[in-house]
């Protein structure tokens, strides 16, 4: 017997139709590349998304054709999110921080047919366009009068002129919810990047899941600031969850420095913000230097890499802002876990609660997870046993674009496919997962594992440390020994011996790094994560003390 409910495909166009009908006048605020603050509404975004759909028709782009974007977080990018996917094309968000050659590779691999870019990326587009023969239409996200006379890019259109010439009357097509809606390439620290292709169905299920109270907890009463870029895993899906709940959205554009982000949070009465730890480091630095506080911010989602305890403490104790530590991956749309406490943890003393907050958290309904040893045997959820973290669920990748890399899944006895995350983790009895390391970053010393995250977190708690990266160095006896590479905060001092002494009593003696290397900067990747491979290359001539 079948259920007798209406069978309606889960499509991204449903989201913008809903936001238009039910949250028409709710504001969308953007700091633009031009530098000014722009205000619009969900109603306007919906109308302009319909223009985008008509304008794509006028370029004769087919169903399933890829439309690339090279853009910061802003209202035009939001219109493309809905106009491109809603009309059945596939939105391909490109990371402008990638090396131009890598960008060219990705555009060609994805077969992008059109590419929309912010004017700040004009020089980049001028440098790469000739190497992307498949891109037939180049569209600059600006007014017609802002387009320079001779850019050298044949047929370059201005977005405003392009959509201005189209009507906002459009009927969103209905199609199979499993059709591709958007795609994003992994940053590919080894080998070529691989494409994760999201579907309408996976995106909508993720939008519901992410908005749940124990996940990101999005509500129509919120003003949400996604600092996490719209070019990285769809800004953690926030634009979609925002449309589902009808909250105000605030976009930072290219200005991600502490002062600009702080001004936007205060000026727009932001209640929730989301981003990677490096961005919050800049924000906290600005606030501490200027002695300012938040008046509306209630919570901040921090993920993408481990959130140092000092950061959780600063937000919580100094500013009264709840930190939601979250974990996910490009291959997971990206949300996997969020660290929201259960009643049992809320009742814990402050230091115990802090230990829980440091964990990456509980799985959002829709994501199942388990930890396994090298034989694939499931490990207990006791908070101590660790293993490779595997996940499955309807918004988790089944295969990469064009089948690259073969079948990525591992199969259990029942034949169910699990995606190996490449992370090593523990899970406690209450289901809180904690990443101990990425499997490639873990340090193996004398047959035991040392968590680079633990070593970094301790260094980061020292008042003179701005950033710390722990890496393993080859050792003839122990296989590997950890060292910690440190960037000092401006105007502060700490010596090697003082920092090593700081580890005493905080971790086992054999886990204390063998050395401290002070550097001016730690290389960061295109998504703001520390690039340990590059760091290792930079330290090629380094020798451990005593060797
Ligand atoms: P990449 O940077 O490799 O393209 P993603 O942006 O998809 O990949 O990042 C996924 C990886 O980032 C995870 O597998 C994990 O190693 C790391 N990560 C994400 N969130 C956290 C977190 N809260 N704590 C620790 N590591 C995290």
UniProtKB/TrEMBL annotation:
<keyword id="KW-0443">Lipid metabolism</keyword>
<dbReference type="InterPro" id="IPR025110">
    <property type="entry name" value="AMP-bd_C"/>
</dbReference>
<feature type="domain" description="AMP-dependent synthetase/ligase">
    <location>
        <begin position="19"/>
        <end position="401"/>
    </location>
</feature>
<dbReference type="InterPro" id="IPR045851">
    <property type="entry name" value="AMP-bd_C_sf"/>
</dbReference>
<keyword id="KW-0436">Ligase</keyword>
<dbReference type="InterPro" id="IPR000873">
    <property type="entry name" value="AMP-dep_synth/lig_dom"/>
</dbReference>
<feature type="domain" description="AMP-binding enzyme C-terminal">
    <location>
        <begin position="455"/>
        <end position="529"/>
    </location>
</feature>
<dbReference type="InterPro" id="IPR020845">
    <property type="entry name" value="AMP-binding_CS"/>
</dbReference>
<protein>
    <submittedName>
        <fullName>Long-chain-fatty-acid--CoA ligase</fullName>
        <ecNumber>6.2.1.3</ecNumber>
    </submittedName>
</protein>
<dbReference type="Pfam" id="PF00501">
    <property type="entry name" value="AMP-binding"/>
</dbReference>
<dbReference type="InterPro" id="IPR042099">
    <property type="entry name" value="ANL_N_sf"/>
</dbReference>
<dbReference type="GO" id="GO:0004467">
    <property type="term" value="F:long-chain fatty acid-CoA ligase activity"/>
</dbReference>
<comment type="similarity">
    <text>Belongs to the ATP-dependent AMP-binding enzyme family.</text>
</comment>
<dbReference type="Pfam" id="PF13193">
    <property type="entry name" value="AMP-binding_C"/>
</dbReference>
<keyword id="KW-0276">Fatty acid metabolism</keyword>
